Amino acid sequence: MRKLICLSIIACSAVLANDRVELLGSSADTNGSVVNAYGNPVITYQDKIVTANRLSYDRNSSIIEAEGNVSVFQHGTLHAMSDYLKLNMDTDTRQSRPFYMIDHQTKLWVSTQESDACESQIDLSSGMLSGCNSTDPVWKIHFSSADYNTDKMWMNIYNARLYVQDIPLFYLPYFGYPTDKTRRSGLLIPTLGVSSSEGFLYQQPIYIAPQNWWDAELRPQIRTSRGEGLYADFRFVDTASSFGSIRMGYFKEQAAYAQERDLAHEKHYGYDIDYHHTAFLEEWFGLNIQGESGLYVKGSWMNDVDYLNLQGTDETQTVTTSQILSRINAYYSDEDDYLGMYLKHYQYLDIAENSKTIQILPTLNYHRYLENLLGDHLLYNADTSVTNFYRPDGKRAVEGNVNIPLILQTGLFDNTIDASYTAHISGRLIGFYGNAQSGESNDAYDSGQYAQLDHTFKLGTTLVKPYGTKTHVIAPDIAYTFAGNRYYEGYYKRYNEVCVDGNTDPVCEFFTLQSPRDTLSLGVNNYLFENGKQTIVDRLSQNFRYDNTGNYYGEITNELEWEIAESISYYNVTAYNHERSRVSKELNTIRYNDHVVSGALNHHYSDVLKNGTSVYSSYWTADASYQYDRNYRFFGLVAYDYREKLMKRKEIGFLYSQRCLDLGLRFVQNIRPVLTNVNNDNAVNDSYIFITLILKPIGGSAFNYKITNNQ
After folding, report:
1. Which of 133, 155, 617, 699 is deepest in the core (most CB within 10 A)?
2. Chain-centre distance of CA 643, in angstroms?
3. pLDDT in tens, 376-401
4. To the nearest 5 percent, what fractions of the chain are helix, strand and coil?
5. pTM for this structure?
6. CATH says 3-182 is which class?
7. What are the structural domain ranges in the chain?
8. In this structure, are strands 191-195 and 699-710 parallel, antiparallel, or unpaired?
9. Rounded to whole angstroms, how far apart are CA atoms 201 and 462?
10. b/e code 81-117 from CB counts within 10 Å (16+ = b)
C-alpha cells in the first residue's frame, strides 16, 4: 500500500512497494486524491525520470499522467518523448502517443503513433526506426508493428521495409536485432551473392552462445548451380590462461558442376585447430614451477584447396597455398634454461598423397641461456636438440645436434673498439629406421657422426657525429671465421662429397651439412637522425668464402629504410650475386600518405638457382586511395605477375561512410588455385561486383555478383 509522506504546494513524496515516488514542481494544486504540478514539473520513480508541461498523480489509483512535451529518461541512456503519457505504478503499465524513443549510446531511434508498455516490454504500432539524423535520415526502416524489451535490449520488427534516401531496397517479414553488445544466440546478418556459374549464393550464419566461456557459429550455405555445404566455428576460453578455436567444413558439389570442370573431388572437407595456453604445466599438471610454460597448437588438414575457397562467398579474401603446415609447440623456460618440443606436419595439396613427405614428429630442444664469467669477458651458452624425421612410406631418421659457442670479448683503445673471439663447437649423430623406398637399398643408410670446431674473430665500433639538427651514427664491423677441424663417420662420411646442391637422390634428403669454408664478413650500419627522429637506416653486408674450389664471393646485400618526408617513405632490399653477375633479389616499396591521398607501389624480383636451374620471378603491386571528403573514399589495387604476363588481381571501388551508414561498391578480378584431375596447378579467374551496406548500429552485409568463373 501507498503511504503519503508529505504534500505541499511544491512537492509530493510517497512510498509505493518500497519504491519512493517524488513529484516536484514550482506550483501545484490538489483535487481530491489527485495532485497536479506545473512549472517544469518532474516525477522520479525507480530508474525513471518524467518531465512535462503538466504532471498529475492520483494517490488512490497510483496513476501518473503527463501532458505536453513529455520526456522519460531511463537507465541513463534511453530517452522517450511523447505528447501524452499515462503510467500505472501498481501494474507498471504505460501508454504513450505519439511515441519517440532514442538510445543515446547507439544513436538508434524509433518513432510510432502510439505505444503500450508493461514492465520491460514495449509494444509499438506502425512506425519507423533509424540510426541517422531524425530530421532527414539517410536510411530508415518502416514497419507495421514492433516490440522492444528494455531488460534484454532486443527489438523485434515486423513487415520491415528498408529505404535509403526514400528509395525502397529490401523487405523482410521479420527482423530482430540487439541494441547492446551482449553476447546472445540468434541469426547473424546473411551473406548474399549471384554468380553466372554458381547461381544464387546464400550463407546464413547462426550464432550460439549459451555460456560466457564458449560460443559457436554455424554457416550453412547454398550455391544453387554448384552445391551445398556447412562450415562451423567453435570458440572457447577454457581457463584464464588459455583460449582456442576449432573450424570444420564440408561442401558437396553437384555432379554436373564437378564433371564440367573436371574437379579432382566432388566433396571438399577439412578442419583447422588453433589453441594457446600460457601456463599449461601449472594448470594441467599442478606443478609449482619458478619459470613459465606455454603451449601453441595450429593445425589444419583438408582434402583439397577448395575447402579454403568455399569458406565464404568472397573468395578474393581467401589465402590459398599449395603447402599446409600444422604445428604443436610446447616449452618451459626459467632464468637459466629453456626446454621445448616442436611438431611439424606438412601437407602438399598439389600432389595426390603425402605418404613420402618427411614430417618432424617431434623435435626436442634444450637451450642454456647465455652465461658470463670473468667480469663479462667470457660468455657461453649451449643448445642441443633431437629430431625424429618420420614418414609413413620411406626411410626415417633420428638426428641429434649440439652447439656450444664460447665467446671471449673485450674493449680496445679505451673501449672505442669491441673485439671478440668465438670458438664454435658443434656435433651431430644420425640413425635410421623403417624401410627404404622401392628401388633403394637399406644398406645405403648407415648411422653417422659428425663434429666441427670453427674460430671467429670480430672487430666492431660505433661512431656518432652531430651536424646541427642532424646526427649521423655509423657502426662498421668485420669478422673472419676459420673453418677448423671436421670429423666425419658413417653416413656423413659416405655422402659428404655426393650430396651437393642439385642432387635429388632420396638418400640425400637427410644430409644438410655445408662444406667447410673460411668466411670473411663485412658489414656497416648507418643511421641518420633529425631532431631526434630516425630518418634513414642503411645496412650493408658482404661475405667472402674460401674453400678448396677457390674464392667465392657471397651475395652483397643492402637494406634501406628512408623517411623521405612526413608523408613519403621508401624501403629497399637488394642482393647482388657476384658469381652470376646479376641481381638475385630486389624488393622496392614506396608509399605516400597525407591522410587524404595514400598509395604504394611495390616490386618484388628474384632470380635464384634451384637444383642448378635459374628460377625467375617478378611481381608488381600497386594500391591507392583518395579521401574526397569525410564521407567519400575511392580506392584501387592491381597485382601483376610480370614473369607470367598475368594480371593476378584488379580492384576498384568507393565507400560512402557517415555516422549511421556505410555504402560501398567495388569491382574485383582475382585468380585463385583449384585442384583438378588434369592439372594440379590449375586456377580460376573470378570477376566480382561487391555491394556493401552497413546500417549503423544494426549491422549489414556484402552482396556479391560473380560475373565470370573461367578456368
Report:
1. 155
2. 31
3. 899 999 999 999 999 998 899 999 99
4. 5, 65, 30
5. 0.78
6. mainly beta
7. 3-182
8. parallel
9. 62
10. bbbbbebebeeeebbbbebbbbbeebbbbbbbebbbb
